[in-house]
Sequence to fold (345 residues):
Amino acid sequence: MCDDCGCAAPGPKVVEVNQSLLAANDALAAKNRTHIEALGAVAINMISSPGSGKTTLLEKTIERLKGELRIGVIEGDIETERDADRIRAKGVPVVQLTTGGACHLDAALTHRGLHALEDQLVDKKLDLLFIENVGNLVCPATFDLGEHQRVVLVSVPEGPDKPAKYPKAFVSSQLFIISKTDLLPYFDFSPAAAAKEALQLNPRLAVMELSAATGEGLDGWLDYLRSLCR
Amino acid sequence: MHELSLVQGLLRQLADLAGKHGATSVSRVKVEIGPLSGIVVDSFCFGFEVLAVEDELTQRAILEIVVPPLQYQCCHCGSSCPATTTMPDSCPRCGTTLLVPAGGDGIVLLQVEME
Fold:
């Protein structure tokens, strides 16, 4: 309606929306969570820079827990099936999602991966679902995939200043893993300083140090996973 | 560069809203981007510039970004620290160092002007 005289002349219409731009993603993530729970599983979204050891940690985790828990993996990468091949060699169901350039997984891609994974499950049951996100400490932090726990990894060669530089990943995670601790003698990395900066951003964050290569600290991680499944 | 996928989501949302309100052109879009949202405002604006012109509905739209100041909350006494750009060293009321950001991680479509 016209502001001057109240006639019916069309004019600009202002609509108050107040809706998150992530609303559609978050609604789909909630559906994913229900779907994952129907399989009996707890889902863990693993976020880190490329090369911090997510896939190697998963390989070692599967080796140790395979006889005890039913494990499935959704792998996210920009290109290639390489990570899925590594996981498949460990003998658990795995789906590779290639984003074709996108720097993160979102709930829609995860939904597709979930169905593809479910097709591989004989009895439609899982205890642990790992979702290995695209190697990137920034973008994946914005997107809920339907996970129950978010784990952020920083490896010793990356340096201890990552929590301060990339706060969102640490604010939104429940566990912070400092990986490749077997390299501590060769790098200027203080796990205590890294943990302190992370806890300043998120005092509820659990912190763990481990080396998938030597197995040091791995027991704590495995117990943490077992406690989630109980 | 996840800003681009967020802009794509925004454009879909604008198309839905225009359909619902019988509008054929969006003239102004107001979006709030929290300082802890992990979203780079310049990249978001660039993404909008590139993608909005591809659709007749949004090609003349002006994007307005609001960045709210960040507040911190004390985990010990619960009081809020005044909005600031850097994290205060300690709580101004009780002096403890356990401060956490309060909100500031959202990205919200606030208002749309269309005709």
Strands of chain B lie at 26-33, 62-66, 70-74, 80-84, 99-102, 107-114. Chain B has a mean pLDDT of 90.
